[in-house]
Every structure is written in C-alpha cells, then in structure tokens.
C-alpha cells in the first residue's frame, strides 16, 4: 500500500492520446481533474462527480471507465484515450461524424462521454442491435435528447466503421 504524508505529492506517468506525461499529483486528485486541470483536456466533462452520469467517460488501458471514479495515482503507468484523441489530423472520427449527422446532441455536455462509451461498445461489439446499444449506454445520462438520436447515431457509426 502506498503511504504518503499529508500534503505530499506522488509522481505518476501516463500516456494520454499517445503522449507521455510525468506529473506530481495529490493522492486525492481524481483522474478527471488530472486530465482537465493538469493536462488541459477539457473535452472530458464533470457532470455528477459520483459515478452516475458518464460525462467523464474515457478509455483506460482500452476499457471505458468513469474518470471521476478513480484517482489519478491509480492510473500510473496506464494508457488513456480521451475525446481529444479520437480525431486524426483535425478530421472527426466516424463516431463523431455520426453523432453530428444524426443530431445526437443538444447542449453537448454528455456527448464526449457518450462517444467514448460508444467507441468502447463498438470495439467490443461492432454490429450491435438497438437493444444492445441501449444496454451499452445505460451508464451514460443525457438530460436533453431523449436518447433516440443517440441510439440512431451509434447504429449509424457501427455501419460507417464496418464499411
Ligand atoms: S462526472 Fe463521472 S460519472 Fe458523472
Ligand atoms: S445533449 Fe445535453 S445532456 Fe446530452
């Protein structure tokens, strides 16, 4: 078990979107705050801060996680992908295109978490049914859209990624 004196910071190394970072962090710092405040990756949002809404979803070593649920120190040595890591050469990722084309967002606050969860869902299951999409996104809350267009966007993205 890691023992740290009060006020002491801990060195961590993480690879985020392909870039290696070394930083000293408070042991109590949440991963989402590390990404936003230390690395300036503010595409990852904080909605509830209590593992409920999914706005903070990222990929940690290839698995989708709610980054408000873990401490930055627990990510030491990990590979992380955030929403900023999906587009290549300023070109939107096909999932981002599908969300845009299907009007799957209104305020956009949930969108980066939805897209990261979709990325994971489609990696695990490239051709999901509507029911599987709804099930795969059940940990991500949207207060605006009613979900219909989000589900349409995910099904559309699955087609785009398979052709
Ligand atoms: S901010 Fe992490 S689940 Fe809501
Ligand atoms: S688009 Fe506003 S919360 Fe989902």
UniProtKB/TrEMBL annotation:
NCBIfam families hit by this protein: glyceraldDH_gamma
Keyword Nucleus: no
Record-listed E.C. numbers: 1.2.99.8
Primary gene name: cutC
Record flagged with keyword Nucleotidyltransferase: no
One Pfam entry name: Fer2_2
Ranges that cross the membrane: none
Name of this protein: Glyceraldehyde dehydrogenase subunit gamma
GO molecular function: 2 iron, 2 sulfur cluster binding; glyceraldehyde oxidoreductase activity; metal ion binding
Keywords attached to this entry: 2Fe-2S, Iron, Iron-sulfur, Metal-binding, Oxidoreductase
SUPFAM superfamilies linked: 2Fe-2S ferredoxin-like, CO dehydrogenase ISP C-domain like
């Amino acid at each position: 078990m890691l023992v740290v004196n009060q006020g002491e910071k801990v060195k961590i190394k993480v690879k985020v979107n392909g870039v290696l970072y070394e930083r000293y962090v408070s042991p109590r710092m949440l991963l989402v705050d590390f990404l936003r405040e230390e690395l300036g990756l503010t595409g990852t949002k904080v909605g509830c801060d209590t593992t409920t809404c999914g706005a903070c979803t990222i990929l940690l070593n290839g698995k989708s996680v709610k980054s408000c649920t873990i401490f930055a120190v627990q990510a030491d040595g990990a590979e992380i992908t955030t929403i900023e890591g999906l587009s290549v050469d300023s070109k939107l990722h096909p999932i981002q295109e599908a969300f845009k084309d299907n009007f799957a967002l209104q305020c956009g606050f949930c969108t980066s978490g939805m897209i990261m969860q979709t990325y994971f869902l489609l990696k695990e299951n490239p051709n999901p049914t509507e029911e599987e999409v709804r099930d795969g996104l059940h940990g991500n809350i949207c207060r605006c859209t009613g979900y219909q267009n989000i589900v349409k966007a995910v099904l559309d993205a699955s087609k785009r990624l398979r052709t």
